[in-house]
Amino acid sequence: MGSFVAAKIAPVRGITDPLIAEVLGVREALSWLKDRFPEVQIIEMDALLVYNALQQNEVDNSYFGLLIEECRLLSSDMPNIKFNWVKKSANQVPHTLTKAASSSHDDLEWSYFSPLFLSTVLFVDLNNE
């Protein structure tokens, strides 16, 4: 609905596979939101492979599949959570946060009020949906 709820960055080093990075991001977001923001009901993502894997109930014993299963388990504790796929042009906030995390040495989080560097990006995302 265009309102900022929360954001967190946590620098992670050594992940070179974009698909693994995407699913790790979803797993970390679920873990963080479950305890701090149980009212969150939607997680948006532009990684179609991750989105599709989360929608299916197939067993996949690969590293990717095991991470997807962790996401499913975490989300089962959040009965109202829903995953939405959005086009990349309407999902620039996570990419902006990823860039910020790559230049940060510390975990940072914001609640209810976005950091200034996200203001324009939030507006652009809202208008590109």
Automatic annotation (TrEMBL):
UniProt name for this protein: RNase H type-1 domain-containing protein
Species the sequence originates in: Forsythia ovata
RNase H type-1 domain location: 4-101
Name of one Pfam family that matches: RVT_3
PANTHER family linked to this entry: BNAC02G40300D PROTEIN, REVERSE TRANSCRIPTASE-LIKE PROTEIN
Taxonomic lineage from the root: Eukaryota, Viridiplantae, Streptophyta, Embryophyta, Tracheophyta
